[in-house]
What we know:
By secondary structure, chain A is an alpha/beta fold. Chain A is 16% helix and 27% strand. The mean pLDDT of chain A is 95. The longest helix of chain B has 13 residues. The radius of gyration of chain B is 18 Å and the shape is globular.
Amino acid sequence: MALNKEQIAQRIAKELQDGFYVNLGIGIPTLVANYIPDGISVVLQSENGLLGMGPFPYEGEEDADLINAGKQTITTLPGSAIFDSAMSFGMIRSGRVDLTVLGAMEVADNGDIANWKIPGKMVKGMGGAMDLVAAAKNIIVAMQHTDKAGNSKLLSQCTLPITGLKCVRKIVTDMGVFEIGNEGFICLEYAPGVSIDEIKAKTAGRLTIADHVKEVAF
Amino acid sequence: MNKVVANADEAIKDIESGVTLMLGGFGLCGIPENCINALVKKGITNLTCISNNAGVDDFGLGLLLQKKQLKKMIASYVGENAEFERQLLSGELEVDLVPQGTLATRCMIAGYGIPFVPVLAGVGTEVAEGKETVTKNGKQYLIEEAFDADFAIVKAWKGDTMGNLIFKETARNFNPLMAMAGKITIAEVEELVEPGKLDPNFIHTPGIYVNRIFQGTNYEKRIEQRTVRKK
Lengths: 218, 231
């Protein structure tokens, strides 16, 4: 069985370390917050100007003035801090955010990422994605391994407009966990029930299989 | 010194067609609702707007789009607005998409009197096309310029008649940066008080940056994505 979205998020949550400041993008990355391991304390950064993002408010307690970067109503926590957008990207640009998790349309085997535009079709804008990928020390991409037509999203070269160059460190897809090495993608883990041959068939970029490749564990 | 004006109509009375405006807010959070409505009512056109987003179809900056009052939009994310996408794809609207951190920084440096900054965001992407670059210690940076806006219009929670401002929660976002960046800055506030009522230690925007201030009315504060949990 390939990993579902929740399981992708759950696997990424294992990468969290105590004391991390983490920026979670929209979509699967947001779900990572639901799987923070016991005994680990992380601070979630929302780039619209909040450190210490809390859970959604209880019904009736929503505050229009308190949202996350996905424009969802949220809450603060004891110890939260609010700041303006320049300071928010200042802490990102200066490398103080330890981990960024974001979605992607394509990732190349050298770590290039495309996730902001489909020419002629989608012109939503890059939001904070270009700033995040240009600066973050540690970027994990959460995405499906293939598009709806079954084409690999792990490529030798991005075909869509680039968001950032050589910046992705790790990718967690429904098929497994991959690192970007000097020789392209390295498969570190495979999803339960997914064979290495299937992963090879569905990966268009250069791919090597780690010597100690193992099944994804949660 | 008298910065207090009666209402949004008076605050924007000298804003004419063709000017460049900055509008604070992130999504619909912290947008200057009163002034946007006044700009729609006034009917001026050919505006260049610098704002992180473009509102939704029937609220915020979307209202100016619907009336075709915008010539150019400078923003980082415009995904929630079908009319925006239509005007962009048909070529009616000029659009400059700017990475969000770069957008914020270009506002910030305008307020700090710094003409340009080197930034990494956008290197190797479409954003870099036609831009000057500088290479330092083996890394290439884009030269990004300070914004030059005729007016900045911001929304604060509280303000005093000296123009000092305090923002609430994440409605702060771009507001204090833009307040510092406009040639003329207009602030609409939920509560306007006399000097001395706000603690100087907790002022976010010092009054020197604010030219006009008024207490707004009838804030709708629409929520874009209402997300809740059960008790």
